[in-house]
From TrEMBL, chains A, B:
<dbReference type="InterPro" id="IPR005320">
    <property type="entry name" value="Peptidase_S51"/>
</dbReference>
<keyword id="KW-0645">Protease</keyword>
<dbReference type="GO" id="GO:0008236">
    <property type="term" value="F:serine-type peptidase activity"/>
</dbReference>
<comment type="similarity">
    <text>Belongs to the peptidase S51 family.</text>
</comment>
<dbReference type="GO" id="GO:0006508">
    <property type="term" value="P:proteolysis"/>
</dbReference>
<keyword id="KW-0720">Serine protease</keyword>
<protein>
    <submittedName>
        <fullName>Dipeptidase E</fullName>
    </submittedName>
</protein>
<dbReference type="Pfam" id="PF03575">
    <property type="entry name" value="Peptidase_S51"/>
</dbReference>
<keyword id="KW-0378">Hydrolase</keyword>
<dbReference type="InterPro" id="IPR029062">
    <property type="entry name" value="Class_I_gatase-like"/>
</dbReference>
Length: 241, 241
């Protein structure tokens, strides 16, 4: 078996309320880029939220990372997208709509190259939809199915699924739509893949075989047939598979 | 063109907070069943929520309609499901998960028979997922993609899509996940189908070519490229296509 050289940040959200995009991750990113002398980053904007163009989204990320003195290139500008992933020193997949992202990645046949790049040690940052694709499938996304991908399968560089923007039930709510926890329980009536609910501000710091929960919150763990549990920050969650 | 004999109730939710299932619709249902001498109802439990069996779900609906003296049969008990739909006097598709429902309807080749039954005048009640399938596609569901249907297309007995359990943005929320309105706007970056956001308690009463909004709330109308608008109760929304 090939060595597992994963080096990843898998974050619930790109942006915390009242902060600038990626602001809460800048220190961690700076240390990664400095230690590894990374000078350029390949950005995958395919989930693009709210109808902005891929170029506009890439520009926004370039601005967010300006203080780190790193060149941000969008994959949409590349002639050969597979080679772009193979040659990248660092890759960032941003948030938006997970269906849109997964459709594009399958249409361009990029899911497997992405998986291989991550396993061979290319630094990977995912936020929101970009974190959902680290799981085995995109079937625990909160997003609307505004496009139909050929498959719900994702990279599987984590041995479980992510629920990004995990939201606790709102106390006293009279709304009859399902809570997030109910939705994930329903996922488990048809699927046995464990699910990690990452609250906004939480992220996984993955190095090799370690998958450490970081940030101010505990994370909620859902497994088929058992009651959900909470995992505290600084715990290695790699047992979850 | 064949006559349009639709006779439908398309409801945002089966159950209002603090009420019993279907309680707020019983008067309207009683008048339909009495006027048309309907004595039996075919229930489609395929969206089944929370892992209950199809039989348990059917039993629950039988209990909810007990006061109307109507026999409720679940489609899962039928030898020939297409004939069951063709021969039904009334059909009710309940809520749960829209992906699960749509997968089953496509796998059993029931989408077209359902459409034909509705157009030829079979009374149809839909709640939540059962209302989503009245639109052109299921692409404005709020549900998690816990199963993968072969197609997102639905019956198209309405000329637009439904967003059931429509939820207004929560004022002062610091959660960074998308609001319902943002999600529907994103749907419109890839699709031109209008969307009717039905708040809980709202329903459409469809008779022939008329599609009247009923219940205590206005409904929110989303069209590609224009700002959302509100439609007041008792308005015919059939212009929306």
């Amino acid at each position: 078996m090939r060595a597992n050289q994963r080096d990843m940040i898998v974050a619930s959200t790109s942006t915390l309320h009242g902060q600038r995009p990626l602001e809460y991750l800048l220190d961690e990113l700076k240390s990664v880029f400095t230690n590894q002398s990374i000078k350029s980053l390949l950005f995958i904007p395919f989930a693009r939220p709210g109808g902005i163009t891929h170029d506009q989204y890439t520009q926004k990320i370039g601005d967010a990372l300006k203080s780190l003195d790193i060149e941000v290139k969008g994959i949409q500008q590349m002639q050969n997208t597979v080679e772009a992933i193979q040659n990248a020193k660092a890759i960032f997949t941003g948030g938006g709509n997970t269906f849109v992202l997964v459709k594009q990645l399958h249409d361009h046949k990029l899911m497997q190259p992405l998986r291989e790049a991550i396993y061979s040690g290319t630094f990977y940052l995912g936020t929101s939809a970009g974190s959902n694709i680290c799981g085995l499938t995109m079937q625990t996304t909160n997003d609307m199915p505004i496009l139909q991908p050929t498959s719900f399968k994702t990279t599987g560089v984590l041995g479980y699924n992510i629920n990004a923007h995990y939201l606790d039930p709102i106390e006293g709510s009279q709304h009859m739509g399902e809570t997030r926890e109910q939705r994930i329980k329903e996922f488990h009536t048809y699927n046995s893949v464990p699910v990690l609910g990452l609250r906004e501000g939480s992220y996984l710091r993955v190095k090799g075989t370690e998958e450490i929960l970081k940030g101010p919150h505990s994370a909620r763990v859902f497994k088929a047939g058992v009651e959900p549990t909470e995992i505290q920050t600084d715990t290695d969650v790699s047992f979850l598979k």
